[in-house]
Amino acid sequence: MQKKLILDSDLLDITLNRLCQQLIETHDQFQDTVILGLQPRGIYLAELIHQKLEKLTKSNIPLGYLDTTFHRDDFRRRDTPAKASETKVPFVIEGKHVVLIDDVLFTGRTVRAAMDAMIAFGRPAKVELLVLVDRKHNRDLPIAADYVGKYVNTIASQKVLVEMQAQGHKHNKIWLVNQD
Amino acid sequence: MSKISQPHLLGIKNITTKDIELIFETAANFKEIINRPIKKVPSLRDVTIANIFFENSTRTRLSFELAEKRLSADTINFTASNSSVKKGETLLDTVNNVLAMKVDMVVMRHASVGAPHFLSKHIKANIVNAGDGTHEHPTQALLDTFSIHEKLGTLSGKKVAIIGDILHSRVALSNIFALQKLGAKVMVCGPPTLLPKYIASLNVTVEYDVKKALEWCDVANVLRIQLERQQIKYFPSLREYSLYYGINKKLLDSLKKEIVLMHPGPINRGVELTSDAADSHHSIILDQVENGVAVRMAVLYLLAGAAG
Q1: pTM: predicted TM-score of the whole model, two decimal places
Q2: How high is the pLDDT of residue B209?
Q3: Which domains does chain A have, with CATH numbers?
Q4: CA distances (Å), B117 to each of B6, B62, B139, B140, B231, in order?
Q5: Hey, is the C-beta of A92 within 8 angstroms of any chain B C-beta?
Q6: Which residue of A has its CA nearest to B306?
């Protein structure tokens, strides 16, 4: 198994800071904006960005977790059903600006499921998508991210591995993995 | 990534502790969903489920039907009392005719022990046993243990007394299996005539005095006297049963500790439970009903997912 480092801790920090600045440009003081991290892996990124944003804007920004498992379109089409994680949306999203956050954008199917799952909590005024890594040329659906940490050219057999300190890793690192 | 080990839920005896834990985790997610303003997910939208009930049921049938609808499955309902069964059709023919209409899963209740097991050998659809005679009622045991788990945090080492008509109860047998798989200690309590002869061979403690049972346990699961299954008299009168085995508020208050009171329903108020006990703060009877939908959603979801 070959691994190539795409982003290390320092670079990731620079990237996250840039993403936060871009978010602030659009959302100002976040008075009408909520953040939803996608389970299972997008939540760590969402927490990091949320922390930075609250520090930068000095305001309280609602942060929730959204699980897409029961809205996936591959249920009964794969060997094992995906395991569900917690959904926690303790605020109203009706009429709000929602920023969905995930680590990797690949086929776009998770994001489609996420939008489906999100609608159960109300009708947002606007929905945006932030991803750390956008795997180009691999989309199955007409879905694009509004904020991208890094574009990576990959082939389908490769995998993007996101290691976060919050998950118990020593450093924040993003890898591109060739699967044999 | 995890998967239930069986294509059917025939009984608790046939599934593993891991399966039960997976069902609990999934049920917890569904419980969050059924408390949302929009209580529905699209997971089972391409699945058709037949609810085939050869025996009366209100709670279980409604609970299954609601679970199916919350998962967006298509459902058809079939009750034996107004069907061709009356005209002499066999069980296998009835079910095969239903399956010919492209049904993916069957939820079945039947008065004969082993009916779903028999069916599982002859048909391809996933089967969920919603009660077979006096044998097993797996989803009830799962929702009971899920409710205890929710209330007490764990089942390991907890003492659970099952009180009442054990002889005619499928809830009792499934509960014993489920509780033991999750590490709880089980006691059965009732008049000797209503306890099966070799029940102690299941590694349960047998007690005839309800007060002692209540003093021993953390959780009391009180069962209904199933008069409809009793062809002979097992005790002199309901009044006498209630006098010796009925649980009332006074009895609960006389204990030196708090216990959790459960009942699978329907309650015969004034027989096995008085109203002041059933409606007291000890009781989690209505939580059991709420959890029933979440647990059944989990079972249907996991079985349907494994069959993909």
Answers
A1: 0.89
A2: 95
A3: 2-22+32-74+83-178 (3.40.50.2020)
A4: 12, 23, 15, 18, 26
A5: no
A6: A80
